[in-house]
Amino acid sequence: MGRCTRWMGAVAALVLALPAGAQTLQQNNERMFREMQAARGLSNAEMQRIRAIFAGSSYIGQGNPAVTRHPMTPEQLAAKLGADPKVYYRNAAFERICGEPYMAPLYDPATETPADARVCADMFEYPDVPGMYPVTWVRAKEAAELCWAEGKRIGDAHEWEGASHGALTPPDYFFGMSVQAARAAHNAKYQSTARYSIGPQWRSGVCATGSFKNGSCNGGSFTGCGSNTYPAGSFPACKSPLGVYDLDGNAAEHMNLPLAPDQMASRGSRKLGVTEMKGSWFIWDTVRAHTHWSRWRAPYWHGSRVMAAGSHHNYHLGFRCFKDVK
Fold it and tell me: Which of 129, 147, 172, 181 allows an S-S link to 321, with CB 3.0 to 4.6 Å?
């Protein structure tokens, strides 16, 4: 009884802390669910599975509304583009290959055409709808489950890297090594061909990297750190050579790093490997915290198995889904 009372008091305090007219996290999520279902044609059964995963967390959403201050609204984005973002970013050629809107086929342009793609990536971070804010505070396990809930899956590291670099090449992992030794070997191999999703050189202002970090954010707490992201697609030039947006900026992204062949999501595994965080995030033009070229693999920050119940989550970490093409 005491625990329940304390929980209800904490929720009440959060609601009271909201600015006038602000929505609660749950209200924001319900609005997001309605918009994503309408935009992407998700079934009621898929939405029921998605809602159940969100219901298991007190954090997942588009940021804590009590402290989040987005630098751009969806209405401002529409004015910037001169069109509804959901219409502006529709790609009929991609849809014929991937079977649904807002996905891009991944392939190697040196030897293949888009029609040869066997996997597609969400064009935008989840919920994969242009004009909507990315979902953050999601654990790697929850990200994998949300992708499965709608018939997609989390991506393997090489797939995200290929989407960003502009060529999906065969998997190249250093199985049998420790996570850190494999990372070092991989980065040494690809350093000479390093590039970003937006080109050979990093350019400030091209991606959603010009936002700010709350003054109250001192350690990554839910109550102090706002997910001050832009609407997806706010920067049309922030696009990889394969047509995938916001790989740099907005939210960093969960990915699966397999340590053995039977942990590869691209081979149908649900056992999965360890966590890998990809890309940069929304304050990168002022705080360049680490390297982030397309095929770069990060240190084992907050590392765990992807499917660990306590896998990492924070205010600037989201994900996108991938889908096998039959």
Answer: 147
